[in-house]
Task: structure prediction
Amino acid sequence: MSPNPQKTPQITRGSPASPADLLGQWYIWQSTSSHWGDKRNVTLTYSALPSTSNNTTTTQPQLDDQITYQSRDSRKLQTIRGTDTRSTTDPAIWTWRGKGLLRFVTNQWEILGYGGMGSGEEGMASGEKEEEADEEGVGWFVVFAEKSIFTPAVVNLCTRGKAGLGAEELEELKLFLKGYGKEELGRLADELQGVLHE
Result:
């Protein structure tokens, strides 16, 4: 179970109350995954799916999960698709199952915290106007994905705007991860790297 929601100056610990808050496009702005090191324009889009029922009376929210990206030396758009099903016991925890060739691959991920995206100059990409970032939407969340048969455990920071967070907010987020109560998160906080967005 995730800890009870509590607030730090910029961060709400735990998951947004409704899966609807996750719908739409997000930029994977920082990640500890080496897979994104030579990629660019990595986006994550959630769409609502009909809920599923288990063998009790509980209905579980589901999301269509689509990641798109490009290699740095190619214009070809690559896509990874899957389905996310929310846990019956903790609204912050979801299970991803791939589609197509990845249909037998599953992975558990957890929303650790979320909040509003900074709109100061530090949060703006070079040449991007503040009002343009606001039009893209505000908001961000940080995810911990468990180790799978193909990937190590990773932390991803997803933002509504591709400008991401300001430097101070990013440092605050790293302190949040280090103080979360899991030793592994403290190590991963220092391994976060920016993902290229053009």
Observations:
- Residues 52 and 60 are 5 Å apart (CA to CA).
